[in-house]
Amino acid sequence: MDKHVIETRQLSLFYGAFQALTNIDLNIGERRITALIGPSGCGKSTLVRVFNRMNDLIEGVSVTGSVVVQGENIYKPDTDLITLRRKVGMVFQRPNPFPLSVYKNITFGLEIHRKGSNVEFPNIVEQSLRNVLLWDDLKDRLEDSAMRLTLEQQQRLCIARVLAMKPQIILMDEPCSALDPIATLKIEELMQQLKKEYTIVIVTHNMQQAARASDFTAFLYLGQVIEYGETKRIFAAPTEKQTEDYITGRFG
Amino acid sequence: MRFRKAKEFVIERLIYLSGFMSIVFVVLIFAFLLKEGLSMFWRVPISDFLFARNWYPISDPPQFGILPLILGSIFVTAGAGVISIPIGIGSALFIAEIAPRRTKEVLKAGIELLAAIPSVVIGFIGMVTLVPLIKNLFDLSTGLTALTGSITLAFMAMPTIVSIAEDAITAVPRQYREAAVAMGATKWQTTWRIVAYAARPGMVAAIMLGIGRVIGETMAVMMVTGNAALIPHSMLQPVRTLTATIAAEMGETVQGGEHYAALFAIGIVLFIVTFLINGVADVYLHKTKK
Ligand SMILES: Nc1ncnc2c1ncn2[C@@H]1O[C@H](COP(=O)(O)OP(=O)(O)OP(=O)(O)O)[C@@H](O)[C@H]1O
Ligand SMILES: [Mg+2]
Fold first, then answer.
1. A115 — alpha (psi -120 to 50), left (phi > 0) or beta?
2. Which tens digits make up the pLDDT trace of A199-219?
């Protein structure tokens, strides 16, 4: 396999006394789309939120084992979360643009990270919107509130605002679950474009989506990685009985 | 079954009626104010009433210019706003976003307690503590000043501002905060740039309602501002507000007389001002709900 940008070793995570992840060893390849699948409550969201330490926001969470992102163990005590989260962007299940203008949604990240001078902002905004194929639709509506966009446009904007920060990894937690099938396909196309430059980890409930859009797939069950490998192989010839049951829809 | 239906019907009607009554009461009160006060404007033109510089209601001939009273109210209110708005919004942000759960509970209980203190008690405390303090601090002949009134009233506006602004801040959807934090924003950047921004309409409403309370307040302000109906030139002079004037003079008037009508005319002015302020607050409150 190619170069790994994320490596977890014996990763376990507890919500208080409840163990949500158990001994996870996972290598995520650079510029690949890795899908996390599994039944509801198996720990997919918990796992992606480990990679940018969003779990820190929840009281009583504790983590053991190591998570190395681009050579750095991000659970070291002196980890700079701000830099980490700039490098590892996140797209959420429900589109959640800020209640600001389209333009400000994108410059927010630049401003808080003091990236580039204001003179470059218009260029960065244009480039980010072009990357998510929104520029032609929105170039005359940059001052409109992002809340007035369609859900698909909002989700694209959320991706654009992450791209503007030039991250290396993009985490997506069921990014299409609020979208209709056509918008879903369009976002998947976009992901194929983005993987030329970015590493993408996507959580999905949708088997077809994982099969269509990802290069690698990890099947999680009850907080453990049951099977992990190339998507083609996992869907064609799963080695574990549980994986097979899940992808053929016998449970989950 | 029939009984339950009838019961529902009666309860529904009662609720409808009580909602309706509150509007009726407001209209009746305003009608009463107009009936008693409007005659003032046949005698003195509105512009003279509002902008003449002298309020000598019992000299001969009497002069009914409420400009000093309007300025008194504006001085006291503006001062109270300058003090209570930043502190109130700051505390609301602290309580809603930063304070750990226990601190939050304690602070919220404290704010509710502050709101429950009768205004005469706040006025009394202001009179025995603040008045001498201001007198000594600024070396004045009297500590009964607009500033004293402002500080006292700031304590009364604060609970309203804090509790309504805190509600508005808490109502900001969690996804906005998550999105900001996931982009690497600090707590402060998230709070200030996203949460406070999103809660702006609610905060404006909170400020308006707080200020509305200050303008309408009478007892506390009468006790600490010195009640001199003169045009004020600084915060360190005694002033008299519109409300204090009505309260102080109503007892000495003859019902139906000129002075009596003048006080009711002041009531009309106050009614319209508070009505407008509450209206603005309402518009902004509905904006947050959407
Ligand atoms: N904040 C929390 N506190 C306690 N337990 C939690 C918390 N968040 C999640 N859990 C538990 O951890 C387990 C994994 O949850 P997680 O949200 O990661 O599942 P998921 O695979 O993303 O599910 P879904 O497909 O429904 O989104 C679940 O059993 C859930 O109940
Ligand atoms: Mg989930």
1. beta
2. 999 999 999 999 999 999 999
Smallest CA–CA separation between B93 and chain A, in Å?
18
- Counting the structural domains of chain A, the total is 1
Q: Is residue A205 part of a domain?
A: yes
pLDDT digits (tens, 9 = 90+) for A206-252: 999 999 999 999 999 999 999 999 999 999 999 999 999 998 887 65
Residue A80: φ, ψ to 5°: -90, 105
Cα end-to-end span (Å), chain A = 29
Using most ligand atoms within 8 A of CB, pick from A11, A24, A44, A58 the residue to mutate for ligand 1. A44
B167 CA distance to ligand 1 middle (Å): 28
Give yes or no for a contact between B42 and B25, defined as CB atoms under 8 angstroms apart. no
Q: Is the peptide bond before B61 cis (omega within 30 degrees of 0)?
A: yes
Task: For a ligand 1 pocket test, name from A19, A42, A201 the mutation site with the most ligand atoms within 8 angstroms of its C-beta.
Answer: A42
pLDDT tens-digit profile of A58-113? Answer: 999 999 999 999 999 999 999 999 999 999 999 999 999 999 999 999 999 999 99
- B287 near B199, Cβ under 8 Å? no
Model-level ipTM above the cut of 0.85: yes
Q: What is the span of the domain harbouring residue A8?
A: 4-98+167-247
Domain of A228: which CATH number?
A: 3.40.50.300
Half-sphere exposure of A4 (CA within 13 A, CB side): 14
